[in-house]
Backbone:
């Protein structure tokens, strides 16, 4: 009878661990929020993907060839969205470059802010 209590506690712990591990599967996947995507937000998502590809290249996850191929493909998609939105081809390349430069500047500022926060929190 004295071995019964530790066995019961062990079974209860295993059951709790199994329930904790399987709970996300039982809940299912949450539904994606429904929203109307504007072309500008689509371009913003594409520019964000360009920045992520650039980051992956800098970290070493992508080869030079893959980086150039992916970024050219994404920038081509952004250009197509702008053409569809505006209809003229005039200064689209310049506008794309300005928007990417602004996104890169924001990304660099966020990276500097993150590194300064880490440096401030680290004792020396």
Residues:
């Amino acid at each position: 009878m004295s071995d019964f209590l530790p066995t019961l506690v062990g079974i209860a712990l295993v059951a709790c661990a199994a329930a904790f591990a399987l709970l996300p599967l039982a809940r299912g996947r949450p539904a994606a929020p429904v929203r109307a995507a504007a072309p500008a937000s689509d371009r913003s998502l594409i520019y964000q993907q360009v920045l992520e590809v650039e980051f992956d290249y800098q970290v070493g996850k992508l080869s030079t060839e893959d980086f150039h191929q992916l970024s050219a493909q994404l920038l081509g998609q952004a250009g197509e969205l702008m053409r569809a939105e505006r209809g003229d081809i005039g200064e689209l390349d310049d506008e794309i470059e300005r928007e990417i430069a602004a996104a890169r500047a924001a990304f660099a500022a966020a990276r500097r802010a993150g590194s300064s926060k880490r440096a401030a929190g680290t004792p020396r």
Remarks:
- The mean pLDDT is 77.
